Amino acid sequence: MVQPANWGVPQTGPQTPNTMASRMQGSLDGVLSENSAAGAPAYKLLGTRWADISVSGQLSAKQWDGGAWRTIYSIDTATGLISYASPIITTPTLTLKDGSTPVAARDLRADVSLLSMFMGDGAQTIRFFGNAAGAPDCVLEDQKSSGSAGGSSPSASFATRALNTRVRDPLNLVALSANVFTPSVAMWCEFEAPAVYANSHKTRIYNVTDGVAVGYGETAYCSTTTNGAVMTFSRGGAPLTAGKQYRLEHYTSSAFSTSGFGVAAAIGVTEIYSRVAMWRI
Fold first, then answer.
1. Which ranges in the chain are annotated with CATH 2.60.120.40?
2. pTM, rounded to two decimals
3. Closest Cα to residue 63, out of 81, 45, 83?
4. Would you identify the CATH topology of the domain 138-280?
């Protein structure tokens, strides 16, 4: 407790030097500590400050308004977190820093292009408000050079589809290695992949970590006859768990070498075959 028993200097005298020094020191200590104590100071005027330490691990800054003590903010003495008693912004405009990759914990930013707000927690970036129906947080594709086909398809079995290019991932939410992707947060994904000369075919997202499929694409069909050679897509969606490894797999009823997983356009631009788009949830 740092509150004076008697406020100010003595008004009557004579007083001894020790008495004067004691009264003055007590008053100065009260001012310097803002009357830090578990109980309110006995001496107060309009505007007097009181550092309330009645709650363990917390310091609450209070001010006398002439009739009551009003809490302005509280500080968690272990973490340093400040909580305001009335967190209402009364000024006309609040401008946030631009960007989507806060670094420090509690750093708040806004990205107009993503229509979203982000906060850092010291380890990763969290989008806590935004347009979930907007652009995906991450897009992975199988990209090949012009003229390169999508690869051979299997006979009556699932095969891993290539995913070799991270097209979009501004927050670095997904790791990609050897066709296997690992989200660092819970996400929803939508996926698609083509096939030709396959008869019936179907895609799925396979949880490599747990050894189980978590979502299947729609059943598609493309004939194995020459006259019926049309490339069709199997598309679907699935939930993804943070920290799990996944891959895109494709079942084809009939095998076809080289281009069973996609015919190249060969027009001088990148060939794109399978794709997985992900949104944070």
1. 138-280
2. 0.58
3. 45
4. Jelly Rolls (2.60.120)
